Amino acid sequence: MCTPELLAGRYLEVLTNRLGFPAQIDHDHTVTFQTAGATWLLQNHAPTDPEYLHLQLFCGIPENTPNDLVDQLALKTTTDTKVVKAYRRDQTLVLSAEMLVAAPDQLPQPDHLAAILPRTIHLILAGVEKILDGIALHEILNTPTTSDETSN
Questions:
Q1: I need a labelling partner for 124 at 20 to 30 A (CA). Which of 9, 93, 115, 130 fits?
Q2: Element (H, E) at 53
Q3: pTM of the predicted model, to two decimals?
């Protein structure tokens, strides 16, 4: 049986020793780590689902961005990208990837985690970029322009 402590230890070992990301385990065995200028969360689903990997990233939403725009961009990102789920929670953008990384009730293997985590991080970052690009484009298209004054 895989315990929360064992799964958190496996994540910590892969993140710090194999991938070089500063990581820590919190009180409920969620693993947080730093990379790409952000703090990431690896939820711990042991002992019931140790094979289930759930990686999350929380991002602030630019001020004055319409909620419906963020919701539309998040839905489009979820629909158009592999693995990534995106949604708005109040003024926070949440992106996650969820996948099975081992056989039922088994601890994920370090080599497998070390191989998939960097790609999963890049997929989530691509989702962030897609949403932020959509917000920037919306701002550009909805910014009033000033007309040049004609000289006499």
A1: 9
A2: strand 52-60
A3: 0.90
Residue 151 lies in a domain: no
Look at residue 144 and tell me if it is in a domain.
Answer: no
pLDDT tens per residue across span 36-88: 999 999 999 999 999 999 999 999 999 899 999 999 999 999 999 989 999 99
Is the CB of residue 33 less than 8 Å from the CB of residue 13? no
Angle made by CA atoms 119, 59, 77, in degrees to the nearest 5: 60
* CATH classification at residue 8: 3.30.1460.10
Count the domains in the chain.
1
Q: Could you list the residue range(s) of the whole structural domain that residue 123 is in?
A: 4-135
pLDDT tens digits along 102-121? 999 899 999 999 999 999 99
